[in-house]
Design brief:
The protein has a single domain, classed as Sandwich (Immunoglobulin-like). About 0% of the residues lie in helices and about 40% in strands. It is mainly beta and about 110 residues long.
């Protein structure tokens, strides 16, 4: 009885995944102080007189929190007095499409 022999050639290719979005021109980081904060946190904008279109604050589990904020020339002040103690993340979108992000810690 004849045995059929089969050869297999297996080739692997390195896959490169590219993810992009047209929503934002680039990402920038902002400075926060005081950190940890108690009553408020000041966010120093990298470009003075930049208009903040949206400001979102997230808990560690991803829940979004709405907090009052005010903006001056190169600063944004967020009221944090009613937040429980913990770590939070802030994202802001500017009028020119930039995303600014940082994290802060709320003390007791």
């Amino acid at each position: 009885m004849d045995t059929l022999q089969t050869n297999y050639v297996v080739s692997f290719q390195k896959a490169i995944l590219t993810v992009s979005t047209n929503d934002y021109k680039y990402v920038s980081t902002i400075k926060t102080y005081p950190n940890p904060c108690t009553q408020f946190i000041d966010l120093s904008l990298p470009v003075p007189e930049e208009k903040i279109m949206s400001l979102n604050i997230y808990t560690q589990d991803g829940s979004r929190i709405d907090l009052p904020f005010t903006q001056s020339k190169d600063m944004v002040m967020v009221q944090t007095a009613n937040l429980p103690q913990g770590q939070y993340y802030i994202t802001m979108k500017t009028s020119d499409g930039r995303m600014l992000s940082t994290k802060f810690y709320k003390a007791y």
